[in-house]
Fold this sequence. Notes:
By secondary structure, this protein is of the alpha/beta class. It has helices at residues 42-52, 100-112, 117-145, 149-169, 200-213, 233-246, and strands at 7-13, 23-26, 31-35, 67-72, 81-85, 175-177, 185-188, 191-194, 220-225, 250-255, 270-272. Helix 3 runs parallel beside helix 5, helix 4 (149-169) runs antiparallel to helix 5 (200-213) and helix 5 (200-213) runs parallel beside helix 6 (233-246).
Amino acid sequence: MQKFADYIKKIEIDSLWSGMKHIVWELDPKVNILSGINGVGKSTIINKVVKGLSAGGEFPSHMLKGVRLDVVPEDARWIRYDMIRSLDSNIAATLAEGDNTMRQTLSAMSNNMGGSLLDLQLYQLQRKYLDYQVNIGNRIIEQLQGGNMDAAQQLSEKKKRFQDIVDDLFADTGKHIIRTENEIRFTQIGEQLTTYQLSSGEKQMLIILLTVLVEDEQPYVLFMDEPEVSLHIEWQKRLIDLCLELNPNVQIILTTHSPAVVMNGWVNSVTEVSDITV
């Protein structure tokens, strides 16, 4: 039995709320975009699936809250996944009283950098980015020791491509990634900036791209709930293509209100909530 699924084939939900008919959503292995008017249940569909998964991505045949998943291969019982939401608010005051370590971390971030949900996500992703670099570095060393120069160079290309993409996206404001740093930092007209000093839109885009990159080309599912919030329209147009470029094995499941997200050839990937209600 394969432990992790390659992608989700179908989502079934008994009902989103009392009295609503079943949801049956047949999914594409790559890109799935859920559309509909406000309040129709787009976010609820994604949230019910994510809440039914364990922290490690394990799911039973019948998940919580009347949710069932068909996956490929069908005997897999784990899913690698990430969930990205578009929310940027100060959260230092909302943490549980007992979580002193996290409260202190966010308090310092709030004093020095902002302390928002986006900042917290960036903080966590910086740690994953460091682990990603260590893993890539170890594999490069193995290839070099075996005399495989081409394979070693290829392993370093994805990180370089990520840096090139970010530099291109941020070019209009003169920001560039400092490529000699292990953590992500920027220069702007001679000044050094941390990720916490970026705008909300820049943070949001960086979070999405980093989330995809650090999965290291493994098959996994990326859930995104209205990821276009705060993003420039040109960034919205490129969003899906950039995610697939950084990891061709990602399955994207997202909700959106923006026509720009589908402009680069993804119109046929759009599903209306009414079309999957039976």
